[in-house]
Amino acid sequence: MPKKSIIRTEKLCKSFSSGGVMQHVIKNLDTEIYEGDFTVIMGSSGAGKSTLLYALSGMDKASLGKVYFSEKNITSFNSDQLAIFRRRHCGFVFQQVYLMDSMSVLDNVLTAGLLTGQNK
Which of 56, 60, 93, 113 allows an S-S link to 118, with CB 3.0 to 4.6 Å? Predict the structure, then answer.
């Protein structure tokens, strides 16, 4: 039985302007990640690992190219569609802490469950 592609990129590019100079972090990436596989993204500091994960999740727009999740082109999603997609399919542990200051740590954690309709 052939493996099912869960994430696929086509000619994915991400560039930033730094001091008037374009930095090409991701260049024409064609890749597939298959359901059930254990995939590792490795590289030195500043190599673009977080940039790639942000592009794969739709947290950051790619400069060019496409990202598919279960054969849906998420690069064509609007911001509301991306928010729903991330809520249902993505989980992140950020390098920086992103908590709502007005809420306790427990309330911050419980909010994700409420947004996805989970009661536990």
Answer: 113
